[in-house]
Amino acid sequence: MAELVIRPEIEHANVEALRDGYGKMQSIAANDNRSWVFWAEIHGFNQYDCWHHSRVGPGRGTEFTYDLFLPWHRAYLTSFDHIARDQNPAAILPWWDWTSTAAHARGLPASYTGPEVNGQPNPLASGPTPDMPDDPARRTRRFPGDPADLPSMTDARPELGLNLSINEILALSQFADFTSHLQNVHDYIHGWTGGADANGVGGDMGVVPTSAFRPRLLGPSRHHRSSVVFVAAQVGHQQRPAGLSRQDARSVPLHRPETFDFLGFTHCCGKALNGGFLLKRITIKKRLRAKLQKVKEELMRRRHQPIPEQGHWLASVVRGHRAYYAVPGNYRAIETFRSEVSRHWLRALRRRSQRDRLSWERMKRLEARWLPPARIVHPWPEQRFDVRTRGKSPVR
Q1: What single DSSP character describes residue 384?
Q2: 385 in a domain, yes or no?
Q3: What pLDDT is stored for residue 396 in this prediction?
Q4: Has residue 265 been placed in a domain?
Q5: Nearest to residue 394, comparing CAs of 79, 91, 92, 41?
Q6: Is residue 2 in some structural domain?
Q7: Dihedral over alpha carbons 139, 143, 149, 154 (to 10 degrees)
Q8: Domain presence at residue 353
Q9: How many angstroms separate the CA atoms of 7 and 14, rounded?
Q10: What mean pLDDT value characterizes the chain?
Q11: What residues have CB less than 8 Å from 6, skipping those under 6 apart?
Q12: Mean pLDDT for the stretch of residues 23-42
């Protein structure tokens, strides 16, 4: 079992390990999946896969009806953390409490703002960028703003575009409202950190194309602080009063966790066998019904074909459905699809003649002969993605 990693606050981070890990990543060729530029390009130029305010892609991007800002960035930073710790096991991404008294007094610690260390570029202060249109390869730049303008846990700052304090954001009961206001804070921190110099030249943190090329020390500290707020909100809205047993707690009204549909699955909260949290992926019901309706119509069209010919076709349909949807936790939907296909097949065969007397016993034999069994064919994500090369770097 992997060792539990505790993220330190920025003041207590292992600075030397971070400089070493980041420096090694920054020296690796951009086309290597362990490199600094490779991972930065996933977020901004030139892939633009990051989520911001329900949008993905370059420019204004493509707008969706749901928003994966928080889960996408948490997964992105976790992956980046694994790469950094491959270079130096102690290079654990820290988090920065920009609401603290120390942050409001001096902003970022000096270890992360000094441009050079021992005559070399400070890997915690800047990172490399690739050649971009009208912007040749260079080191990133940032010009942080006034520390007194950082967000507060208790005070809203409407003049800065922060209409709610962090405590007020935590009190929001709807996830859509919560993530929208939290992203406003996130965007403001981006702009505050990027800033601009005396000549009006802006820092890279203020724009999506280049924001990920700056050191992740601020990124995880900023995003991880947002994640801390995210987790605190989940705990605050889901916890039950102290002293209640599990049975008594069922009568206490709790905020129902949100679900979202993505890539054919409904993503929802579940419970593992050990009682822990489990992210469940279940076939979208509307998509399941639509697929079964198409199978039903095609079976009626094919009903006069020989049974082996129909069986071969149905086997390919069930096998193809299972190849995509048979993920852990989705067995019931896979079994439902197979049984409904069998039921539609029986009805189609019975419609071949007015005198047809096909029994369920024979249908069960046909089902066992032609339809692949319902089973899970995909591993858990941590098993699939935890593949390592001889150098212990993840295979992407």
Answers
A1: H
A2: no
A3: 47
A4: no
A5: 79
A6: no
A7: 10
A8: yes
A9: 11
A10: 82
A11: 92
A12: 92
